[in-house]
Specification:
The complex is a heterodimer of chains A (240) and B (537). By secondary structure, chain A is α+β, with helices and mostly antiparallel strands. Chain A contains nine helices and seven strands; from the N terminus they run ββαβββββαααααααα. In chain A, a hairpin with a 2-residue loop joins strand 3 and strand 4. In chain A, helix 5 crosses helix 8. Chain B is 36% helix and 18% strand. In chain B, the strands form four sheets. In chain B, strands 1, 2, 6, 7, 8, 9 and 16 form a seven-stranded mixed beta sheet that branches. Chain B has a five-stranded mixed beta sheet with strand order 17-15-10-18-19. In chain B, strands 11-14-13-12 form a four-stranded antiparallel beta sheet. In chain B, helix 1 runs parallel beside helix 5, helix 6 packs across helix 15 and helix 13 packs antiparallel against helix 14. Chain B starts with a strand and ends in a 6-residue tail after the last strand. Classes of the chains: A alpha+beta (240), B alpha/beta (537). Chains A and B meet through helix 1, helix 2 and helix 3 of A and helix 4, helix 5, helix 10 and helix 13 of B.
Chain lengths: 240, 537
């Protein structure tokens, strides 16, 4: 079977180039390892647990984000690195933005409060807390085309996980932290939900955060200065 | 200079970091992977603690001691079990979303070898959720990280560890990181069983190998736990929680052949023998029903479907045992001190005499949290006593390692080390696996020594100075060659069967071997002795 890989090397010209390989294995991660160990030692990618929980092997296959360890390949599949992150080499991208975003959004339990946690309470954050930080949703999100500062799907899902955690007593500061470059910037396209290997639904999580924000007196900044043609669209077709 | 340098960012390293920061020390966490990529993410079943009045700490101690087959240190185990409830509470306060029972208490399930339902859990994502919550807490506390920096060696001056050399995996530059104390939390060495284990390929024991080179003692390296239930073909783990919830082990005719909740070593050997007799062995949870399966073991249901297209509620799944956990590691006392001054070890890379010859399910997560925090406390205590040291930088170690990395680029690469690595996995699983004997292990040893001689004829095909994973894997293979020798020699030296270490040629436990095997290097030569367990420290 043939697969194609878009490889990147900053010291080569052109820096990015598609290579074709013949492989005998069906799982993408096995195929990448087959190429690396038997054909070309220089193929570079991240890998870890091989069972879909460490989140290190996410790549883009035919335009869709996938975990290499859980993906079966087909003839002529094209493998490319995750989008919107600087490519370091081949399929390895820079992940430094992750910690910065999580910190900015205050995606952690800040002020613990002793409360009764029922089965139902725990279930309400079960899905959101099973995120593996694989960056698939980040790579699928079109908002990054225009706003690299956007906090993005996994960060906002993580914020909701702590906002809905009954143990957190200071949820307001989290809502405050996600107003700018946060929930209102999302286009609700649903790409993130479609690509999540853990079946998390960041789009719905973002809608939930919007509702909670409304309830706490925040408003959608795109709608707040609604005074005619230039309302939130950033341009004025009539020139006044 | 950093007060406490922590190497490794799994559950043990992050617990140590949070504790050290809380005590007021400056902390730097250096790690080969990102924190959430680490092995802790794969722990599924649970974390043991006596939470219920009908259970008792002495029961937890006794279960752990019994499973250790005479190699458990009652004091260290007592410390861990006594503090378990407090540590669960600590995790709860940090935000770990533990599953709850109908009375809103933290839910607990019974795992193999336990006399009580004692494992607290978050469905079957316990390790993942603990790890991610610890990471979130580290972000909150502004812990400093150096991600994707791989440990090369400890810097030892006047018999004291004063820092490490590490290679930046993006620029391939060797760096010298000095610190007042160093905590190593780099995980186990299960990757020796390449292709026959349930773990991440990154578990190559780098910290343990570096400790051995630096002169530290390693212990019980032959004690390898084989998990009974990995999916046949891909060795993806089916957690013990499946059996904890009532799952069966059956053959082709649906006959059960072993009590599924016996300790892992016994269950794994029973399965292996069945397979050797040309039977196929399955994990069967169909009788639990869809609702229960979805609620209690959702991850396993998904893994089974993703990797083999099996719906657990409709079909039984074919399994085999696979290497899973290293009980051995860097010898430490119950304060997490290694035999080298200023070096502490915790987590799977440490041999704390908790698990002895066989680990109980639910005790590994407990160990990493407990001893991660203890290592930080011990390292912090030592900071106060420490007098100021002058270290001349660059150190000799830094210069040596810089020269070594430079030289690797010129190694001839006449032999493909990946082939040897694959072969190592095969001969290890077959001959240093669930059933061992002297003759076969000696054959493995001579093969290892051959590869050690050939090491400088191996090398890398990728000569890039950017993000060179080929170089990383080559260094890892060097560490694997070093550690595999200690595993085999320790296993050959232990002429008895005890827990996970089963010798076909010495099938019984021998009283005189109720001791730690201890491996260390003298002038570059590996020695293995047996030492009495030190119950006093």
């Amino acid at each position: 079977m043939k697969i194609k890989i878009l490889r990147f090397d900053e010291n080569k010209q052109p820096q990015q180039k598609e290579f074709e390989y013949e492989v005998s294995t069906f799982r993408l991660l096995d195929a990448l390892n087959e190429i690396k160990t038997k054909q070309d030692n220089s193929l570079t990618f991240r890998q870890g647990c091989g069972s879909g929980v460490c989140g290190s092997c996410a790549v883009v296959v035919n335009g869709v984000e996938k975990l290499a360890c859980k993906t079966h390949i087909q003839e002529n599949d094209i493998v490319t690195p995750l989008k919107y992150s600087k490519v370091i080499r081949d399929l390895v991208v820079d992940l430094n933005h992750q910690e910065q975003f999580l910190k900015e959004a205050k995606a952690y339990l800040n002020t613990f409060e002793e409360k009764e946690i029922t089965k139902k309470d725990e279930k309400s954050i079960e899905l959101q807390s099973s995120c593996i930080l694989c960056q698939s949703c980040f790579s699928s999100c079109p908002v990054y085309e225009v706003n690299p500062k956007f906090l993005g799907p996994y960060v906002l899902t993580r914020v909701l996980r702590y906002v809905n955690d009954k143990k957190e007593s200071n949820t307001l500061e989290k809502l405050e932290a996600i107003q700018e470059d946060g929930i209102w910037d999302c286009t609700l396209c649903g790409n993130c939900t479609a690509v999540c290997p853990q079946f998390i639904d960041p789009k719905t999580d973002i809608l939930n955060l919007r509702t909670k924000s409304y309830q706490n007196g925040y408003t959608d900044p795109n709608l707040s200065v609604n005074t005619g043609f230039d309302a939130g669209f950033g341009f004025n077709p009539n020139g006044f | 200079m950093t007060d406490i340098l922590i190497i490794g960012s799994g559950g043990a390293g992050l617990s140590a970091a949070l504790r050290a920061k809380e005590l007021g020390a400056s902390v730097l966490v250096v790690s080969k992977t990102y924190p959430t990529h680490s092995q802790t993410s794969q722990a599924q079943g649970g974390i043991n603690a006596v939470m219920h009045e009908n259970d008792g700490i002495e029961n937890h101690v006794n279960d752990t001691l019994k499973s250790s087959h005479g190699l458990g240190d009652v004091n260290a185990i007592q410390t861990m079990c006594e503090n378990a409830k407090e540590n669960i509470e600590w995790l709860n306060i940090l935000g770990v979303p533990f599953s709850r029972d109908d009375t809103s208490h933290i839910a607990q399930r019974k795992l193999g070898g336990a006399s009580f339902a004692r494992a607290c859990y978050s469905s079957d994502y316990t390790g993942l959720k603990i790890l991610h919550t610890l990471y979130d807490s580290c972000i909150k506390e502004s812990i400093n990280f150096l991600h994707e920096h791989m440990l090369l060696n400890f810097i030892v001056e006047n018999s004291t560890v004063v820092g490490i050399t590490a290679i930046d995996l993006q620029t391939m530059e060797v760096k010298e990181l000095l610190a007042k104390s160093v905590i190593v939390a780099t995980g186990g060495y299960i990757a020796l069983y390449n292709g026959f284990n349930t773990n991440s390929n990154s578990t190559t024991g780098d910290g343990i190998a570096a400790a051995l080179r630096a002169g530290a003692k390693l212990s019980n390296m032959e004690m390898i736990q084989f998990h009974p239930t990995a999916i046949k073909g891909c060795n993806v783990l089916m957690s013990e929680s499946a059996r904890g919830e009532g799952g069966y082990l059956v053959d082709e005719q649906d006959n059960r052949f072993i009590d599924e909740l016996k300790p892992r070593d016994e269950v794994a050997r029973a399965i292996y023998e069945k397979i050797q007799e040309k039977h196929e062995v399955f994990l069967d949870v169909r009788h639990l029903g869809l609702e229960k399966i979805k609620e209690a073991i959702p991850q396993e249901r998904r893994l089974a479907y993703d990797f083999t297209n099996v719906k657990l509620e409709e079909e039984k799944i074919s399994i085999n045992p696979a290497a899973h956990y290293c009980m051995g590691g860097i010898l430490v006392n119950k304060e997490a001190k290694t035999t080298l001054k200023n070096l502490y070890a915790c987590g799977e890379c440490a041999q704390t005499n908790i698990h002895g010859a066989n680990r109980l399910g639910g005790n590994s997560l407990l160990e990493i949290i407990t001893f991660g925090k203890i290592a930080a406390s011990s390292a912090y205590k030592a900071l106060k006593k420490d007098t100021k040291k002058q270290i001349t930088s660059p150190t000799k170690q830094f210069l040596n390692d810089t020269a070594f990395i430079k030289a690797v680029y010129d190694f001839p690469n006449k032999i493909n080390f990946y082939e040897k690595k694959e072969f190592m996995g095969k001969i290890f699983f077959k001959n240093v696996g669930l059933f061992r004997n002297d003759l076969n292990m000696k054959a493995v040893l001579s093969q290892l020594r051959q590869w050690q001689k050939e090491f400088s004829f191996m090398g890398i095909g990728d000569k890039s100075r950017i993000c060179n994973k080929n170089l990383v894997e080559f260094i890892e293979f060097g560490n694997m060659l070093e550690l595999s020798e200690t595993v085999v020699i320790s296993a050959i030296s232990r002429c008895e069967s005890r827990g996970a270490h089963f010798r076909s040629d010495h099938p019984f436990e021998v009283k005189d071997f109720a001791k730690n095997s201890v491996a260390y290097k003298v002038d570059g030569i590996l020695a293995v002795d047996f030492e009495e367990l030190n119950h006093e420290n």
